[in-house]
């Protein structure tokens, strides 16, 4: 097995940046091994419970066609949320009518369903502390004209009828939407190794 001293000697042949990164990695891994736990197991129950909040995010057909899927996923990863489910679907009017049931009487309802079924969606479930509220802020106002720069809609869209992304608007709504789009078996419970650094212990 490679001993720390041998490792440091080997590292001297590399640039200072590689030396710093490798040393950080070595000490992180050895700390985790010494303490013999899976990621984050020593966190308080309450912190973990809060961190289990989930929301439904969907890249709409305009976002998929414009190849924005990667950038949208990147924002949620970068923020510190955890992806627990993902699929690409061609949605039927049936599922969309249920998803947007509260808007049934709105004048734009029919065109909304036509737009949402015009091409594939990428539907995801993201998990993390306060994820419902935080993701609504990250997505920005429904009308992109009102969404500030820095939000997804504010950066990637201009019109309310083509606003790139969906995000659940409440914890209750999120639960309903997740059940509508995903079977429980398709959502993964997994330990993300950086969670001890992204939520309070
Ligand atoms: N929408 C529209 N015209 C409107 C308002 C809404 O086409 O005047 C569409 C838009 O795609 C929006 C979706 O209907 O994202 C759902 O509306 P909601 O009010 O739930 O907004 P959201 O929760 O998506 O911000
Ligand atoms: Mg909504």
Automatic annotation (TrEMBL):
Question: What are the protein's GO molecular function terms?
Answer: ATP binding; metal ion binding; nucleoside diphosphate kinase activity
NCBIfam families registered for this protein in UniProt: PRK00668.1
Keywords in alphabetical order, please: ATP-binding, Cell cycle, Cell projection, Cytoplasm, Kinase, Magnesium, Metal-binding, Nucleotide metabolism, Nucleotide-binding, Nucleus, Transferase
- Give a GO cellular-component term: nucleus
Q: Per the record's keyword annotation, is Hydrolase included, yes or no?
A: no
Q: Which organism is it from?
A: Oryzias latipes
So what does this thing catalyse?
a ribonucleoside 5'-diphosphate + ATP = a ribonucleoside 5'-triphosphate + ADP; a 2'-deoxyribonucleoside 5'-diphosphate + ATP = a 2'-deoxyribonucleoside 5'-triphosphate + ADP
Q: Which family does it belong to?
A: Belongs to the NDK family.
Protein's UniProt name: Nucleoside diphosphate kinase B
Sequence intervals crossing the membrane: none
Pfam families to which the protein is assigned, alphabetical = NDK
> What is the membrane topology noted in the UniProt record heading this document?
Peripheral membrane protein
Task: List the cofactors.
Answer: Mg(2+)
Broad class of the protein's primary localization: other
């Amino acid at each position: 097995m490679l001993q720390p001293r041998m490792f440091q000697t080997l590292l001297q042949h590399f640039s200072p940046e590689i030396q710093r990164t490798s040393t950080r990695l070595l000490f992180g891994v050895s700390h985790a091994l010494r303490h013999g736990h899976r990621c984050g197991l020593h966190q308080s129950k309450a912190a973990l419970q809060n961190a289990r909040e989930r929301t439904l995010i969907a890249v709409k057909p305009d976002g998929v066609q414009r190849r924005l899927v990667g950038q949208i996923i990147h924002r949620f990863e970068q923020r510190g949320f955890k992806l627990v489910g993902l699929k690409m679907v061609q949605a039927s009017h049936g599922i969309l009518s249920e998803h947007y049931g509260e808007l049934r009487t709105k004048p734009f309802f029919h065109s909304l369903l036509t737009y949402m079924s015009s091409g594939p969606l990428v539907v995801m479930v993201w998990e993390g502390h306060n994820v419902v509220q935080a993701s609504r802020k990250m997505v920005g106002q429904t009308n992109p004209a009102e969404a500030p720069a820095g939000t997804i809609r504010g950066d990637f869209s201009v019109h309310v009828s083509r606003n790139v992304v969906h995000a659940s608007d409440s914890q209750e709504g999120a639960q309903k939407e997740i059940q509508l789009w995903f079977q429980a078996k398709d959502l993964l419970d997994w330990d993300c190794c950086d969670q001890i650094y992204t939520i309070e212990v």
